[in-house]
Amino acid sequence: MNEQYPNCIVQALSPFEKIELEALPAEILMKRFDRKFLCHKDDIATFLKLMTQDYQNITAAGQSISPYSSQYLDTADLSFFKAHHARRATRSKIRIRKYSNTGTAFMEVKMKNNKGFTRKERTRVGYNDSLLSSTSRTFLANYFPEEVLKSLGATVAIHYHRIALIDTVLNERVSIDFRISTEQDGRSAHFGDVAIIEVKTDAIRRSPAVAALRSLSIREFSFSKYCLSMTLLHKNLKSNAFKPNLHYLQKIDHAFTF
């Protein structure tokens, strides 16, 4: 690995069977149930050691850990952020996700329905394309009316490093995000030593990952990197609904401030 990662994490990843991202079906688990868990980064290695029998490590360009960058978009009145803050069951997010290991980028739409089911749609865009290229606009027009598209603009960018696992029958993915930071217009914030573990399944089913997390007393928590980033960078934004998340981050990492 080119990046310097903690030895305990590198060693914990070593026993995993590897599967290259390109070997997986392109649309695998784009429609799924998501469950999120928050922990300290020091818990990552312990969790990984419990996963080696049931999961493979997804590699990208041969790397077991990949840096990600996501540029989020919202309307001028922040309708996507406000829908989440209002706890609307049906809500959407738009982002451009970049994978520096492979030099690829995608315009993505995430849509959650009132059954808790998440559907993700995406299209490949140029790594250095403008924010709303013609390819992106054509893609987004499949999901949003023209008045929304005209109002879209960049909000926060979020950067992190991800470990990705998949079970041996390809029904479940697990992502572990850490070194999470956010920025917008010269402002920046860091999520400290907090790690986000997400379990994604095609149906509600027994999950070895969830069982392992529970055995480690790692709590499930409703959490949005986008909404927390907006809250951290925009102090005047109405965000009372996300304050419990911030307090929980502080409980995990006492050095985290907001």
Q: Could you name the ranges where pLDDT drops below 50 across 5 or more consecutive residues?
A: none
Helix % is 10-25%
Q: What is the rounded Rg? A: 18 Å
Report on the biggest sheet.
Answer: 8 strands, antiparallel, barrel
Q: CATH architecture, please?
A: Beta Barrel
Describe this structure in words.
This protein has about 260 residues and is an alpha+beta fold. It has a single domain, classed as Hypothetical Protein Pfu-838710-001 (Beta Barrel). About 25% of the residues lie in helices and about 35% in strands. It has 8 helices and 11 strands. It has an 8-stranded antiparallel β-barrel with strand order 2-7-6-5-4-8-9-11, surrounded by 4 helices. The radius of gyration is 18 Å and the shape is globular. The mean pLDDT is about 95.
Topology of helices and strands:
Blueprint: H1 7-13, E1 18-20, E2 31-40, H2 44-49, E3 55-59, E4 65-74, H3 79-85, E5 91-99, E6 104-112, E7 117-125, H4 134-140, H5 146-151, E8 153-167, E9 172-184, E10 187-190, E11 194-201, H6 208-215, H7 225-233, H8 243-252
Parallel strand pairs: 1-3
Antiparallel strand pairs: 2-7, 2-11, 3-8, 4-5, 4-8, 5-6, 6-7, 8-9, 9-10, 9-11
Q: What distinguishing features does this structure have?
A:
8-stranded antiparallel β-barrel; single chain; alpha+beta; 258 residues; Hypothetical Protein Pfu-838710-001
Task: Give a brief outline of the structure.
The chain has 258 residues and is α+β, with helices and mostly antiparallel strands. 23% of the residues lie in helices and 37% in strands.
